[in-house]
Amino acid sequence: MYFRNEHPTEDQIEWYLFGSLPEPQAENLEEHLLVCHACIDIAEKLAVFVDSMRSTLEQSTPKVSAAGRHI
Ligand SMILES: [Zn+2]
């Protein structure tokens, strides 16, 4: 339970937001966020970043139906 006393890194929080942090660590990080306002601040900042990353990825993904057509 190292996240209780020690802050997770921004990378770890980012992985958590992306859903790619392994289960025991994700659970610890979640518990840490419940009690640590400093890390909640970081998580909120990263969440905005992750959201914009996601929408950028979605926008840059070529749409198959549109890609086949030449207008
Ligand atoms: Zn913390």
What is the structure about, briefly put?
With 71 residues, the chain is mainly alpha-helical. It has helices at residues 10-18, 23-35, 37-60, 64-67.
Percent helix among the residues? over 70%
Approximate shape: elongated
If you average the pLDDT, what whole number results?
A: 85
Report the β-strand fraction as a percent range: under 5%
Radius of gyration computed on alpha carbons: 17 Å
Give the strand tally.
0
Q: What is the straight-line distance between the termini?
A: 57 Å
Sheet with most strands: none
Protein structure class:
mainly alpha
Order of helices and strands: HHHH
Q: Which small molecules are bound?
A: zinc ion
The low-confidence parts are none
Q: Figure out the total of helices.
A: 4
Give a description of the structure.
This protein has a domain at 10-57. It has four helices and no strands. The chain has helices at 10-18, 23-35, 37-60, 64-67. The protein is elongated and about 60 Å long. Bound molecules: zinc ion. Residues 7, 32, 36, 38-39 line the site of zinc ion.
Write a concise keyword list for the protein shown above.
about 70 residues, elongated, binds zinc ion, mainly alpha
How is the secondary structure organized here?
Blueprint: H1 10-18, H2 23-35, H3 37-60, H4 64-67
